[in-house]
Amino acid sequence: MNSLRVDGGAGRLTFGDWAMECTIGRDGVCAAGDKREGDGRTPLGLWPIRGVLLRPGKVAATGIRLPWRWIRGNDGWSDDPADPAYNRPVRLPRAFSAESLIRSDDAYDVIIVLGHNDAPPVPGQGSAIFFHLSEGRPTAGCIAVDRADMLRLLPRLAPGDAVAVMS
């Protein structure tokens, strides 16, 4: 298992001897147990990589060793603590609040799904903590890097890898 290491204070992500700038939540980092839905903080901890979601027509799937699939137009992610499918992929439209995985920006052209609050999900302790493309601003709690870095990194990742978030 290899770990991508995120230094939240320095805004740096390292993988082996390779380092790049990254962005995290707009309100910094927090202990995983203190993470709350919508707080804008990135949870500290070691988060296994669950898989990759790719936006068709925006990125090639060449050389990816992680489990992956194309994002479909009705794909969403539940962010409603009252939803029985909280912090899970869902189909839209939905009676509960859910984030669309098709965004007007390019941030979700590549989504690496992280295993934060998913085994099992605890309602209200944070959802949709992803590793995705940077849009040049802090995230809502995710980790993001620029497109060129993500596309160079993606084929190097393998099943069993994880993301370690540190302060």
From TrEMBL:
Active site residues per record: 132 (proton donor/acceptor), 142 (nucleophile)
Keywords, ordered alphabetically: Cell shape, Cell wall biogenesis/degradation, Peptidoglycan synthesis, Transferase
The organism's place on the tree of life at top rank: Bacteria
Coiled coil: none
Keyword Cell wall biogenesis/degradation annotated: yes
Record carries keyword Transferase: yes
Domain L,D-TPase catalytic span(s) in chain numbering: 1-166
Signal peptide: none
Pathway listed: Cell wall biogenesis; peptidoglycan biosynthesis
PANTHER family in the record: BLR0621 PROTEIN (PTHR38589)
Family, as annotated: Belongs to the YkuD family.
Name of this protein: L,D-transpeptidase family protein
Source organism of the structure: Sphingobium cyanobacteriorum
Taxonomic placement: Bacteria, Pseudomonadati, Pseudomonadota, Alphaproteobacteria, Sphingomonadales
